[in-house]
Specification:
heterodimer, A: 381 residues, alpha/beta, 12 helices, B: globular
């Protein structure tokens, strides 16, 4: 549905987005994750055709954004960051205007506007001026503008930013309802939100795509093959830490703190993904340690994000320039080698052609001589 | 284009801008009418438009300064430029909406022709040639104002730039005679005499087309440098 191939956006020497590539399939809800200024909005703006990439190509439903922008734009409903609206228009007028901008035929326009208003729950405020609405409703109006005419692709830039928790839940439910008929791309830096809504996550950092996977896989990768248990115990005889000797799977026991009620908190790392809670329970009973709380710790998308982003090496501008230069140099070298190989190939082909022609000539000469001799012999006879 | 034209025209009427423009123009035009007719007893309708051109020089930015700078500042530019509408249709829609407001303003000035007709015998043909020339001057002014608005997201800068260039066009030919062909307001002088000069008409139309094209280029270019 959407193919982004080696796309970069450069401002002078600064790369807002550098050599990113990813594919989004039809019907997927994809989340763009990244810190502020990571390049999420720039990428979205390039997909919508609002800005042009400096390098690379973007194909939306078979159409190149650069060559067929109108075809691409017809298939996209875009909700920009900050919910820009025309404040002198009512909700209905705004959605109608968006429908007109999207070239929805006059006959279908009324029904399309009514549908968008209904889907976003704006019926009650449809005759109010957009400037008089609450932030949550403004967000909905912006979303109605994006979904009017049922575009195949919805691009939502920070759809829940600045909303109160109730409004956030409402907007999330609304986005989830789009799953049936649309491919949705949304950007956010609220990780739990992306984790709840999206089937696939694209993590962008400093203008580069650093991970593309499902939230589950990213979470699994964050913890690796170890398992973590959090325990709160009553351990008057300080015997808990000796448990490591009796359970072989325990890799490390870390003491966290002593609580006001003198209970102690520990974090236990195990070597494999084997569940040791049962063994732990019986061993603690044997040692006279009372377990007050035992919880298996699972990694969140937040852990995955932090791990992925913080594990990345920090490069200075000079180093980046050096890498660029080396990349360019490598490209030139490759080009040169290819040219050399081509030249040699041509030389070889020329040589072979020459040899072939020579052999043909000699063959012809020989056959000529042979026929001459035959004629001569015939004459003599 | 029609969708943009309709929306823009509605915006002029829903916001105070359209009324401020029409009101200011008619108010100042009326003052000039009163002064010239009652104090100097001049009964020419067309001569009023010499003053009209002066008023237009200073109030055109009221109509044009927000055209693109406001959209850019509020982010609504994203809504237009990510829609399947072409940049050309967006620019023309906005231009013709402003031209329509100008046409209404000009139509209102025709009431003074009626008043003068009651007292004397002003020529309708000269009046129409004057109105035509004045409309062409207004289109040229609007197109430049729109171009200035596409350059910045600050409406004040767009306004100052527009008035600054109009004043420069007005007075620079006095200092540098070679610049006379670029003075839009001085070119208008022939129309109230009943002369429809092809040179002036073509200059106004060319200048308008040039500014519209420049606006399209600016918006197109911003896609790659934004």
């Amino acid at each position: 549905m959407i193919e982004v191939k080696n796309v970069s956006k450069k401002y002078g020497k600064f790369y807002a987005v550098r050599d990113i590539s990813f594919t989004i399939k039809e019907g997927e809800i994809v989340g763009f994750l990244g810190r502020n200024g990571a390049g999420k909005s720039t990428t979205m703006n390039m997909i919508t055709g609002f800005i042009e990439p400096s390098e690379g190509t973007i194909i939306v439903n078979g159409y190149d954004v650069d060559r067929k922008p109108k075809k691409v734009k017809e298939q996209i409903g875009y909700m920009p960051e900050g919910t820009p609206l025309y404040y002198d228009l009512t909700v209905k007028e705004f959605v109608s205007y968006m429908a007109e901008l999207k070239l929805i035929p006059r006959k279908e326009r009324k029904a399309a506007v009514a549908k968008a208003i209904e889907e976003t729950g704006l019926e009650k405020v449809q005759n109010k001026l957009t400037k008089n609405l609450s932030r949550g409703y403004k967000q909905r109006v912006s979303m109605a503008g994006a979904i009017v005419g049922d575009p195949k692709i919805l691009i939502l830039d920070e759809p829940t930013v600045g909303l109160d928790p109730k409004q956030v839940i409402e907007i999330r439910e609304l986005i989830k309802s789009f799953r049936k008929n649309h491919t949705v791309i949304l950007s956010s830096h609220i990780l739990s939100e992306v984790s709840q809504i999206c089937e696939k996550v694209i993590i962008i950092d400093k203008g580069e795509v650093v991970a593309v996977d499902t939230p589950n896989n990213l979470e699994k990768e964050a913890v690796g093959d170890k398992e973590i248990l959090r325990l709160t115990v009553e351990d008057e005889n300080d015997k808990f830490e000796t448990i490591k000797e009796s359970i072989s799977n325990i890799k490390e026991i870390k003491f966290v703190r002593t609580n006001d009620d003198k209970s102690k908190e520990y974090v236990i790392e195990t070597n494999s993904d084997e569940d040791i809670r049962k063994v732990m329970f019986s061993k603690c009973a044997e040692l006279g340690v009372v377990i007050l709380e035992m919880k298996k710790d699972t990694a969140s998308l937040e852990d995955a994000f932090i791990k992925i982003v913080e594990d990345r090496p920090e490069y200075s501008e000079k180093e980046i320039e050096k890498q660029e230069y080396e990349k360019e140099l490598e490209g030139l070298r490759q080009e040169l080698t290819e040219k050399k190989e081509e030249k040699e190939f041509r030389k070889q082909a020329k040589k072979e052609e020459k040899a072939r022609k020579k052999a043909q000539k000699e063959e012809r000469k020989a056959s000529k001589e042979a026929s001459k001799e035959e004629n001569k012999e015939g004459g003599d006879k | 284009m029609l969708a943009i034209l309709k929306k823009e025209f509605k915006s002029y009427l829903l916001s105070p801008i359209g009324y401020i423009f029409v009101g200011l123009f008619i108010l100042m035009f009326s003052i000039f009418f009163m002064v010239t007719k009652f104090n100097y007893s001049v009964l020419n309708f067309e001569y009023l438009f010499y003053n009209g051109a002066t008023i237009l020089t200073f109030i055109t930015p009221v109509l044009t300064m927000r055209m693109f700078s406001e959209e850019r500042k509020n982010g609504t530019e994203q809504l237009i430029l990510t829609s399947p509408r072409s940049i050309t249709s967006v620019v023309l829609g906005k231009f013709f909406a402003a031209a329509l407001i100008m046409l209404i303003t000009e139509a209102l000035t025709f009431m003074y022709f009626g008043i003068l007709k009651y007292f004397g015998d002003p020529s309708i043909m000269v009046a129409l040639s004057t109105l035509g020339g004045f409309f062409l001057l207004a289109l040229a002014y609007i197109s430049f104002g729109m171009f200035a608005s596409s350059l910045t997201e600050n409406q004040i800068i767009a306004c100052v730039l527009t008035i600054g260039v109009f004043i420069a066009m007005w007075f620079l030919p006095n200092l540098v005679p070679a610049l006379a062909p670029f003075s839009l307001i001085n070119m208008f002088d022939k129309f109230p005499s009943g002369v429809i000069s092809i040179t002036e008409v073509i200059t106004y139309i060319t200048f308008t087309i040039l500014c519209v094209l420049l606006t399209i280029i600016v918006l197109q270019r911003r896609k790659s440098v934004k």
